[in-house]
Design brief:
The protein is mostly helical and about 450 residues long. It is built from 20 helices and six strands. It has one domain.
Length: about 450
């Protein structure tokens, strides 16, 4: 068996062993398993039937990670993306008032577009056409957006008629628990405790068993510790494929925004994790990045069919790489863990919202990491990034942040005499976004 795995995944060539790959796989799963409870909580706010979303999350992560393992032999795991699920629920469904079935159709066509751009090589030209400052602003803006959602769900931030938002009631036991959870999560992540985010969710869930609310304890007692996964009948192939086509004028920007975020999130993760695993070539490029992007796009298409937001590569894969993972065997172990985790569905279903909010805020904080790549001496770049990252949480829309970022960048470049440095694609997108606002095409 060991010889077969060595031949399939070229373990000796990559300087690793079956034991090392197993440990790395378990480590990666522990680091990203929080998505099993966080993703259903976010998607449930879109109106999707919560029953079955844990199963959908696990299956989509399993399929996506297996695709990455078999198509690339890279130790990179996939799952429904944070930020992308928030975009699905809050921007597409809640802000634009689009049904979750139609939103799944948008996810499907986003995956198809992503796949076509990769297969035709257009992906590279699109990636190079987008200014670095806008990429940074978008990633940081999504981080702020996710953190803001977490603060709101925790009751730490509430609406106010005069100031729009204000501090919540900290005397509420559930809110205090969420605040304690945020601090705990920050500490365990800083101390690099494996699965720190998951650990904080478990601790808060246990504490919730002793916190009373109007409807009983904050954490309900499980009906069982092990059980069969929930059916996905309500979401399987429920996507409305015709809605994005029939309402293209209303949905084109949503498809583009999903593709934009998914593409750069994937590229950033692939390069970052691969650099740690020494998988880059002498020119600093990832040899099979095309296959990796194809796996990512195919996983999103499969995820739409199952009933979830876009599936993407996870930066938490770096945890497994740090433990020695170097091949697709690490990813296969992660995929198997996601599948086996479905046996613990009864336990995952009792986890309260307050226990998952620290995970949202911590992920948001981690996404702010790219701000250090911004050239603060370049006021134009700073303005572009700032507009994008501020607009997302303040308009409660990722797509609006992207649109305003494009418009700001082009305006600044033209106004400072640097218009020739802007690509035609960037000009076109800025004009289209500007016309959308001027003609109120929403």
């Amino acid at each position: 068996m060991t010889t077969l795995l060595d031949r399939l995944f070229k373990l000796t060539q990559h300087g690793t062993t079956v034991k090392t790959e197993l440990i790395a796989g378990f480590t990666t799963f522990a680091a990203m398993s929080y998505i099993l409870v966080v993703n259903p909580g976010i998607l449930g706010l879109s109106g999707m039937p919560v029953e079955g979303l844990i199963t959908v999350t696990a299956l989509s992560a399993c399929i996506g990670t297996m695709l990455m393992a078999l198509m690339t032999n890279y130790p990179i795991a996939l799952a429904p993306g944070m930020g992308l699920n928030a975009f699905f629920a809050f921007t597409i469904c809640m802000t634009r008032d689009i049904s979750w079935q139609a939103a799944l159709g948008i996810v499907f066509w986003n995956g198809i577009l992503f796949l076509l751009l990769t297969l035709t090589g257009v992906r590279t030209r699109v990636a190079e056409a987008i200014p670095a400052s806008l990429k940074i602003g978008v990633q940081c803006g999504i981080g702020l957006f996710i953190a803001f959602i977490g603060l709101r769900n925790a009751g730490l931030v509430v609406d106010h008629p005069a100031t729009f938002v204000t501090l919540g009631d900290l005397s509420e036991p559930a809110t205090m628990l969420a605040l304690a959870g945020i601090l705990l999560t920050i500490v365990v992540v800083i101390k690099r405790i494996t699965g720190g985010i998951l650990l904080s969710i478990v601790v808060l869930t246990i504490i919730g068993l002793f916190i009373p609310t109007e409807n009983g304890m904050l954490t309900a007692r499980p009906s069982a510790f092990l059980g069969l996964p929930d059916s996905i009948e309500s979401t399987w192939m429920a996507m409305d494929l015709w809605y994005p086509i029939q309402h293209f004028s209303e949905t084109w920007d949503l498809i583009f925004a999903l593709m934009f975020v998914n593409m750069f999130d994937t590229i950033g993760t692939l390069i970052g994790v691969s650099r740690r695993a020494n998988l880059l070539d002498q020119e600093g490029k990832l040899p099979r990045i095309g296959a990796a992007m194809n796996a990512d796009a195919t996983a999103s298409i499969a995820g739409a069919a199952l009933g979830t937001s876009p599936v993407t590569s996870y930066v938490e894969s770096a945890a497994g790489v740090s433990s020695g993972g170097r091949t697709g065997l690490t990813a296969l172990v992660v995929a198997a863990c996601f599948l086996l985790s479905l046996l613990f569905t009864p336990l995952m279903k009792i986890i309260p919202l307050m226990a998952t909010t620290p995970a949202l805020i911590m992920v948001g904080i981690l996404m702010m990491d790219s701000i250090r790549q911004l050239d603060f001496d370049d006021l134009g770049a700073l303005a572009t990034a700032s507009v994008a990252l501020l607009a997302m949480p303040l308009t409660f829309s990722i797509s609006e942040g992207i649109a305003l970022g494009f418009i700001t960048y082009v305006t600044v470049m033209l106004g400072t005499g640097k218009g020739r440095e802007v690509s035609l694609l960037t000009y076109a997108l800025a004009v289209i976004f500007l016309l959308r606002y001027a003609l109120d095409l929403k």
